[in-house]
Every structure is written in structure tokens, then in C-alpha cells.
Amino acid sequence: MKRHSIFQSFRFAFNGLRSMFRERNFRIEFAALLINLALIFLLELSPQDSAMILLICAAVLSAEIFNTAIEKICDFIQPNQDARIKFIKDISAGAVLLLAFAAIAAAILIYPKYLSLLFS
């Protein structure tokens, strides 16, 4: 197997990220990251809270990438309806949903203290 240079490896990875922008859910989750970035700067979150928000946003986006990869592999292996493939796709999507709920919970725990300072 041919080894690629580090630059080629990064290029392949960036191509993968660029491809993900064709996926609606990824675009929505990326928009949530941008909103969170704006809130981090506008509300002047602490480094710890900023790191927590950024890590969970990255986790959601990464889960979406894995979910999309799993779905594409499943579609390649079995292009027709199949209950086993549906199960695999459903649990993969469920993992993304679980992380999205965790992201919402983190926001509910982190942002109110900064919003109360803003409005006091």
C-alpha cells in the first residue's frame, strides 16, 4: 500500500470535510458551532467553559461524519431496503442524536450564568 505524504493526508482530510458540507445535518450542526463561537466571544466565556462547548461541538460534528460514513457504506453494500441495514443506520443516527442532546444539556448548564451577568 502506498504511503502518502503528510500534506496529501491533510488534503484528503480537508476534501472529506468539504464533502460533508453537502450533507444537510452537517451544515445545521456546523451553524450551531458558529453560533457557539460567537457566543463564546460575545459572552466572554471562561477558557474551561469555552473548551467544553468547543469539544462537544466537535464531538457532534465528528459523530455526524461517522454516521454519514456508515450510511454510505450501508448503501454501497445493500442498495435495496433491508431491515438489518435500517437497524445499523438507525443506531448510528441515534448516536448523533444522543450527542446533540448532550450538547443542549451542556448549553443549558453553561450559558445561563453568562446571560444573567449580561442582563444584570
TrEMBL record:
GO molecular function: ATP binding; kinase activity; metal ion binding
Membrane topology category: Multi-pass membrane protein
Principal subcellular localisation of the protein: membrane
Assigned GO CC terms: plasma membrane
Annotated InterPro entries: DAGK, DAGK_sf
Gene3D superfamilies linked: 1.10.287.3610
Keywords, comma-separated and alphabetical: ATP-binding, Cell membrane, Kinase, Lipid biosynthesis, Lipid metabolism, Magnesium, Membrane, Metal-binding, Nucleotide-binding, Phospholipid biosynthesis, Phospholipid metabolism, Transferase, Transmembrane, Transmembrane helix
Organism name: Cruoricaptor ignavus
GO biological process, one term: phospholipid biosynthetic process
Record-annotated active site: 64
Binding site for a divalent metal cation: 23, 71
Family named by the database record: Belongs to the bacterial diacylglycerol kinase family.
Binding site for ATP: 3, 23, 71, 89-90
Membrane-spanning parts: 26-45, 51-70, 91-111
Record note on cofactor: Mn(2+), Zn(2+), Cd(2+) and Co(2+) support activity to lesser extents.
Location relative to the cell: Cell membrane
Source domain of life: Bacteria
Residues annotated as binding substrate: 3, 64
Protein name: Diacylglycerol kinase (ATP)
Cofactor needs: Mg(2+)
Taxon lineage: Bacteria, Pseudomonadati, Bacteroidota, Flavobacteriia, Flavobacteriales
